[in-house]
Amino acid sequence: MSLQESLNKFKQQQEKCQSTLTSIANRSSRPTHSQKQAPPSTSSAPSRVAAPVKFSNDTERLQHINAIRKSPSWRSDKAILNAYVQTRQAFTPEQINEACYVDIMGNKAVFDSLRNNHKVHYDGRCFSYKSKHDLKGKDQLLSLIRSYPEGLAVVDVKDSYASVMDDLQALKGAGQVWLLANNDSQEDIVYPNDPKVVIKVDDDLKQLFRGIELPRDMVDIEKDLQKNGMKPATNTAKRRAAAQVHGIPSKPKPKKKSGISKRTKLTNAHLPELFQNINVPDS
Questions:
Q1: Which of 90, 163, 256, 260 would be 264's cystine partner, CB 3.0–4.6 Å?
Q2: How far apart are CA 185 and CA 188, in angstroms?
Q3: Strand ranges for 226-269 from DSSP E
Q4: What are the per-10-residue average pLDDT scores of the chain (283 residues)?
Q5: For 138-235, where are the alpha helices, taking DSSP H only?
Q6: Which residues touch 169 (CB under 8 Å, ≥6 apart)?
């Protein structure tokens, strides 16, 4: 069969298919006796184009949900605890599933891990965050700090309520507490500032106190504190030993600044009054 004959046969098949489709369309468009003929649509009315069907545009969220539900129980617990710290609200299992995508009722391991967590309180219906100290505001925070005259670690109260760190800074600014850093543990310690100890001291006593010469080495100061029954806030010997083990070099001594000599180039030589009090050596 030649190429021209194949093309003619293909055209005939196309015409036959077209005529079949036209006849089907004509039969379906004929009105029946029980139906009213629909009014013709005006050309001014815009034709509505159906939106194409798309797959989910929320792929990233669905992948995140799938990753959480396949993760170990401790990671699910962490996600729930983060939600507690941010909102400070009690959640039912259904609300946890909506907020964190963790189905604790369908996962016994997560449910038991969450119920036995020392940071979580479960009353039989809702789960809520349980901090070490149940504080509600600045007044309760100050009362707690005053009950720890030897100092209270900030890490023990920083998760009590949302604005606790702001309240600590406010108490420090008002002079009601002392907020100091512990060099060994790298944690802040808050101390109460008792207003009863604010007394007037004679100038002679101040001068005597300031005239006492302290040991140059911090290790000797710590030993003197221990002899007097006080616990030093630092441990210099331990810190130096750790520095030697890890090969941390000691701080170099600052170099003494050299004075002005004849070799010194004075850029402001046209202003001699600037150098009246400077002694330049002869050699």
A1: 260
A2: 9
A3: none
A4: 72 74 63 50 51 56 67 64 68 79 77 80 81 87 92 88 89 90 73 80 90 87 89 86 75 61 61 60 53
A5: 138-146, 164-173, 203-210, 218-227
A6: 179
How far apart (Å, rounded) are the C-alpha atoms in residues 13 and 111? 68
The two structure tokens encoding residue 126: 């809702």
Q: Which residues contact 194 (CB under 8 A, 6 or more apart)?
A: 146, 149
Whether 122 and 75 map to the same domain: the answer is yes
* Tokens, residue 193: 């500032």
Distance of CA 246 to the CA centre of its chain: 30
Query: In which residue are the tokens 């600037």 written?
Result: 274
Rounded to whole angstroms, the Cα distance separating 79 from 91 reads 13
CB–CB of 37/29 below 8 Å? no
| Domain housing 67 | 61-129
Q: What is the reported pTM?
A: 0.43
Q: Residue 252 — φ and ψ, nearest 5°?
A: -70, 150
Q: 250 lies in a domain?
A: no
Question: Which of 113, 106, 56, 108 has the alpha carbon at shortest distance from 79?
Answer: 113
In a domain, 192, yes or no: yes
136: region left, alpha or beta (phi > 0 left; psi from -120 to 50 alpha):
alpha
Q: How many domains does the chain have?
A: 3
Of 97, 129, 161, the position where a domain reaches its end is 129
**234 and 174 together in one domain:** no
CA-based diameter of the chain, in Å?
Answer: 128
Residue 177, pLDDT score: 92
Task: Report yes or no on 256 lying in a domain.
Answer: no
DSSP 132-145: SS---SHHHHHHHH
